[in-house]
Specification:
The protein is mostly beta strands. The protein is built from one helix and seven strands. A hairpin with a 2-residue loop joins strand 6 and strand 7. The longest helix is centred in the N-terminal third of the chain and has 20 residues.
C-alpha cells in the first residue's frame, strides 16, 4: 500500500474543490519536469538519500514568528518522506523559519509536526514551490 492508497479521514483530506484550479496543473508540470531531469542525469545521481512518495493533501503552516490570530499559511502538498515535505503555495515563505505544519496522516488523523522551511521559490506568477524538513524523522510517512 502506498501513502496515497492509505485511508485518510475525508474531513482532513484535500478535495479537488478545496484547491484552486492551478494547483493540479502546477504540480503535474513540476512532476513532468523532474522526471525529464532525472532521465538526463547519470544513474548515480538519480536517487535521493531518502526517497519521496507522492502525497496530495492540504496542510496548514504556522510559523513561530507569526502574529497571534493570523490565519495559517495554506500549503498544497506534493510529496513526503520521513524527513520532509514538498509543497506549492501562493505565499512567499521565509527560508530557515521554523513552525508547525498540520496535515492528515496516511491513516486519517491530523498531525502537527515541528518543521523548518528549506526552500521557497517562485515558479509561476503568484505561485511558489517549497520544501520543509521535519525537525524529527516521521515514521508515519515511511514507504511501505
Amino acid at each position: 500500500m502506498t501513502l496515497m492508497d492509505a485511508p485518510v479521514n475525508p474531513a482532513a483530506a484535500a478535495s479537488s474543490a478545496d484547491a484552486p484550479a492551478e494547483v493540479d496543473l502546477i504540480i503535474s508540470a513540476l512532476a513532468a519536469g523532474e522526471n525529464r531531469a532525472k532521465a538526463a542525469q547519470s544513474p548515480s545521481l538519480r536517487h535521493r538519500e531518502v526517497p519521496r512518495t507522492p502525497y496530495r493533501v492540504l496542510a496548514d503552516l504556522r510559523l513561530y514568528s507569526d502574529i497571534d490570530g493570523n490565519d495559517p499559511w495554506r500549503l498544497y502538498t506534493r510529496d513526503v518522506s520521513v524527513r520532509g515535505l514538498g509543497f506549492i503555495t501562493s505565499h512567499r515563505l521565509p527560508l530557515g523559519y521554523g513552525g508547525t505544519v498540520e496535515l492528515p496522516a496516511p491513516h486519517g488523523n491530523v498531525i502537527a509536526l515541528s518543521c523548518t522551511i528549506l526552500r521557497c521559490r517562485e515558479i509561476a506568477p503568484g505561485w511558489y514551490d517549497g520544501a520543509l524538513y521535519f525537525n524529527r524523522e516521521q515514521p508515519v510517512f515511511a514507504r511501505r
